[in-house]
Amino acid sequence: MPPLRSTGVGREAENPEYAGEYRLGACLGAGGMGVVHLARSASGLRLAIKIVHETHASDPEFRARFRQEVAAARRVSGAFTAPVVDADPEAERPWMATLYVPGPTLAEQVKRSGPLSPAELRRLTAGLAEALRDIHRAGVVHRDLKPGNVLLTDSGPKVIDFGISRPSDSDVRTETGKLIGSPPFMAPEQFQRPREVGPAADVFALGSVLVHAATGTGPFDSDSPYIVAYQVVHDEADLTGVPEELAPLVARCLAKEPSDRPTPDEIMAALKPPSYEAAAFIPAQRRPSAAPVPDLETRTLGKRESGSDTTEAVGAGQPTRALRIRRWPLAVVAAFVVTALAAGGAVLARQDGDSVPETRRQPTAAQSAVGWQTHLRAQGDAAPSCAASDGGLICTARGIGAARLDAATGKVAWSRPARVEDVGPARVPVGGHVVTLTGNRLTTFDARTGRPGWSADATGYFADAVPCGDVLLLGSASGTVTGLDGATGKPLWRHPLRGHSAPRLGPYDAATGLVHLFEESAGGRTLITSVRARTGEVVHQRRLAGELTPAALGEDGTVVLTSRGAGSQVDAVVRYDPALRTSNRVRLPSLLENPGVAVRGSVVYLLDRVGTLVAVDTAAEGGRDLWQLETAAGQVSSPVIGPDGRLYLSAADGRLVAVDTGRGALLGQTKPRLPGGRLRYASALSAPVVLGPLVVATAPDGSVFAVGAADPAAW
């Protein structure tokens, strides 16, 4: 253990300088069990490190409880908690490092600014209910939910401190005579039957937390913890000051009997009418959005009826009955219904017991900017993958080879099924065709009509075929590269490239007609070859220092490559100009894990797989750091820059996130979209698509959805 910074008998004297390999910085807070310090990892991530007090480190029972805390925190790490980065419960002074989440605790916010507004309270209720749902689905009961353990962030509330939590199926029991928890936020059974505490105790605590957030005091209030305990067990909760529309729900949470309390799912369902947002705590200075209204959700028949404008559903080769499009606000729907009734032409007919065909007009451009949502009947957790194609969207999902959606309305023009095990992202567009890989064959569909096109044998080729305008490029393990005509599938050229034994295909530059291939070589160098996609002619070739991967293209024809250092983490970007044969290497402020890259002007944006977003300017020699943002989005897609200069990304729980590239600040996000509301995340993520006034994203519940780009704060 490193030497202590000071000596003496006070608590400050016990503070070590390091926890494991992490040098400790400012003290973020202290409690009865430990002290929390700010620190940085070797890659530059900001961490919150909890170190057990020296007096507890020698207590075997406490060490067992701390090991349980580490295990519980790791078990539930996700969208609503601070992920565990590292821990050593066996150290001389046990410690745990989690990702630092900036933002005040709910206790600090209420103390500083007073009770939350009704709108903020609804968002907090929804966020905490969703957090408890996911914590409980991980098999953990928190048992100490209180305002001090709730962080308020732009990405929603985060639940922290699993110090007394335990798995719901654990055999660990509270010792007789020991009261563990915070009395004002404990459930009656925690005082009466501590061995029987289950998930319902967290729901009771949620009710107490909401009363505190709404009023500044708890539903049971006394200076004596013994009196508070008596009130919790015997007295009715004081809900004075709780907004009238939320009071009945809070009262149900505070029921004395666990079986009488709602589940987190029931809480979220109760919040939906008239509005439900599982989004972030939004500071008061944020501009409020228009009051939300419920969407009209229509389940349509798979077959178009004569004279109607219903939408064809998408299924895996089955009658298409499960497509749902959710796109019009209630005000627009009401206006439409009034107009239709006046004309005597509004007819809704229920058929087959569960489908409602509906006649509807095409939305105007202004209405389209409101957004839409289309569900693809996909299988598994993978989100659909979509790309822009000639005024529309081509999407694919497990069980769906390809489908074309209208970009303005989400309406499905055509769809084609595919075997689940064969489907990968569709390559679009290539010579007016959508290309998919089925078994060892490339199959195509006309991008406009969906009619079958050409097919070709792909045996021996890598799966990462690259569309290059009207040419499809394929690479093989033998080092041969082949260019196919996208319109006919006929080979245009096929030959190895000089200097390469197994080249990998990089990005295609439509402005120059060049595709950039790369291959690492001996001595820590990378061979970059620029090839004319139509003819296979080698135009530029150069070896650059480092293990490099082409990741994005600049508007000026330059290629941005990521450079991997120790541990295969990305530590720099290289901007390479093939025409001038010049390069500029820019070191990153922190190491990144497999980042996606976007470029705008001279600025490069790198988003790593755990949500760290870094911006560096590559204009000057050596470049300069601009900003770094922890999006707290977890697993993410590649970033996309819109014409408005904003950056968009998709999170694995189905959220679409917008970032201000000038300030490096979050602007807004949509709600999570998970299959059946269950805690499952997309195994593959498609980058958002910016189409005029809309941003289109996909989610693991099988939905493709669009939102207006003008005001992310209103998402």
Automatic annotation (TrEMBL):
<dbReference type="InterPro" id="IPR017441">
    <property type="entry name" value="Protein_kinase_ATP_BS"/>
</dbReference>
<keyword id="KW-0808">Transferase</keyword>
<protein>
    <submittedName>
        <fullName>Serine/threonine-protein kinase</fullName>
        <ecNumber>2.7.11.1</ecNumber>
    </submittedName>
</protein>
<dbReference type="Pfam" id="PF00069">
    <property type="entry name" value="Pkinase"/>
</dbReference>
<keyword id="KW-0067">ATP-binding</keyword>
<dbReference type="InterPro" id="IPR011047">
    <property type="entry name" value="Quinoprotein_ADH-like_sf"/>
</dbReference>
<feature type="binding site">
    <location>
        <position position="50"/>
    </location>
    <ligand>
        <name>ATP</name>
    </ligand>
</feature>
<dbReference type="InterPro" id="IPR008271">
    <property type="entry name" value="Ser/Thr_kinase_AS"/>
</dbReference>
<dbReference type="Pfam" id="PF13360">
    <property type="entry name" value="PQQ_2"/>
</dbReference>
<keyword id="KW-0418">Kinase</keyword>
<dbReference type="GO" id="GO:0004674">
    <property type="term" value="F:protein serine/threonine kinase activity"/>
</dbReference>
<dbReference type="InterPro" id="IPR018391">
    <property type="entry name" value="PQQ_b-propeller_rpt"/>
</dbReference>
<dbReference type="InterPro" id="IPR002372">
    <property type="entry name" value="PQQ_rpt_dom"/>
</dbReference>
<feature type="domain" description="Protein kinase">
    <location>
        <begin position="22"/>
        <end position="282"/>
    </location>
</feature>
<dbReference type="InterPro" id="IPR000719">
    <property type="entry name" value="Prot_kinase_dom"/>
</dbReference>
<feature type="compositionally biased region" description="Basic and acidic residues">
    <location>
        <begin position="296"/>
        <end position="307"/>
    </location>
</feature>
<dbReference type="InterPro" id="IPR015943">
    <property type="entry name" value="WD40/YVTN_repeat-like_dom_sf"/>
</dbReference>
<keyword id="KW-0547">Nucleotide-binding</keyword>
<dbReference type="InterPro" id="IPR011009">
    <property type="entry name" value="Kinase-like_dom_sf"/>
</dbReference>
<feature type="region of interest" description="Disordered">
    <location>
        <begin position="286"/>
        <end position="315"/>
    </location>
</feature>
